[in-house]
Write a structure and sequence with these properties.
The chain has helices at residues 5-20, 24-29, 38-48, 53-83. It is an all-alpha fold. The two termini are 18 Å apart.
């Protein structure tokens, strides 16, 4: 199991990013703006504040923070998987 931790961490990161960045499925399914996911909200925010780039960039940074935190949490598993050797 210790050798599988880096692969499981990478898979968890990919699954999280896939669901976090999903745009089309919520766009098709959701009709109430109160239920929009963050990608849909960011898209509508960009449409409302098209000339206020500082607001758009701040919202994009807030949208990116959870992904960066997940990567920071799993980083030790990534590095252990990369530097793992079978030296005895």
């Amino acid at each position: 199991m210790p050798m599988a931790k880096p692969a499981l961490a990478a898979q968890a990161n990919f699954v999280f990013m896939g669901s976090w960045n999903d745009f089309m499925k919520p766009l098709i399914i959701l009709s109430d703006p109160e239920l929009f996911t963050l990608p849909l909200r960011l898209h509508s925010f960009k449409g409302q504040y098209i000339s206020y780039w500082n607001y758009i960039m701040a919202a994009s940074m807030v949208f990116t923070l959870p992904v960066l935190l997940i990567y920071a949490f799993f980083n030790k598993y990534f590095m252990n998987g990369i530097s793992f050797t079978n030296d005895k």
